[in-house]
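Our consortium's second objective concerns turning raw sequence data into structural hypotheses that experimental partners can test. To show how far this objective has progressed, the report includes one record in full. It was chosen at random from the queue rather than selected for favorable results. The single chain below, 165 residues long, was entered without modification.
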Amino acid sequence: MTRRGTGQPPGTGRWSALPIPEIPIALFSFLLHFVWEFLQVPTFAGMAAMPHWDGIKFCTAATLGDVGFALTAFWAASAVGASRQWIQKRRRLPFVVFIAVGIALTIAFEYYNTEVSHRWSYSELMPLVPPLGIGLSPLVQWMVIPSFVLWLTRRHRQGTTVPRA
């Protein structure tokens, strides 16, 4: 298989992606989760009334945690797939492990922070998922965003060609 119009294999040449899959995973995770964190502000108690800079710091910290979850999930999926290049091979089991680890970490983290440490709570706008009472939005976040992160990472790692006029 070659890159369209170049005769080179995907991931090579001037526009090739970095050989380290963790970098695009972290970058795309940060960008997508950062937006999600701000969109779900009204579903957390007190967040909408928080001073602007404090809200930004809180959402940024939450996003960095999401990036940590994504990297942990990636490494777990890499262990199952016996390769850090499993994204390019479109293998089902590592993909399922990636999503499952992210969801498991989210459930544990949300439960701990809302029920044990009481670091935050949900507003009346947040639908809760029984039986643990964790918020639906963080759970959906880890069902939706990781798929986009993997898709973007795969496309990035395949490289691109610049069409000639």
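The partners drew two points from this record. The chain has five helices and two strands. The radius of gyration is 18 Å. Both points have been shared with the crystallography group to help prioritize constructs.
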